[in-house]
Write a structure and sequence with these properties.
Blueprint: H1 3-10, E1 14-15, E2 22-29, E3 32-34, E4 61-63, E5 67-74, H2 97-110, E6 114-117, E7 122-133, E8 143-151, H3 190-199
Antiparallel strand pairs: 1-6, 2-5, 3-4, 5-8, 6-7, 7-8
Amino acid sequence: MDVLSVLFSQRSRRIGIIIPDVVITEKHSDSLEITDHPVEVPTSSSGGASGDGVGYIADHAFRRPSELVMETGFSGGGSVLDFADTSGLGLTLGKSPKEMYEELLALQRSRKPFDVVTGKRMYTNMLIRVLDVTTDKTSENVLMATLTLRELITTQTQVIAGAAKENMAQGVNTSATQNTGIKTPKAVSQSILSSISGFFGG
């Protein structure tokens, strides 16, 4: 692969609306939180599936937010040469490292989820958890930033309208219908059946 191909492929990465000039490394992390206590495996006799994962209790495992660590680089921007600041001579190109740093900080502090495009996958609802910037003698006029991004897992709530306050004199009879889920019928006590049977001489 030639140099131009590398540059164009690198520019395909995107952090929100920010496009790094180069992405040195990408580390993708996805994990499950798995319970420590024993989980009952249903059998065919109990009405559940056996061995195929269907019918397990609902909270035996849950997905942790995806994490992504990107080591990125932004060109001098304010300087034509990486090793010398030429902005004082009027030789500038794009945003300076300071301006790019401020743009990344603003994205982090906005706390608004955004999309991230990498070489392996696309992420949605991401936030910058950690922004690390290192400056040394070789990167004085460029911006080298390591971003630790984490997914924000969202959910939806359902709003159920209740009865007006003036109509609540009779409580349950005037309240709105509530979704309380599926109810399992209670088993009839054996002792009650035995007593009834004995009463009728059975």
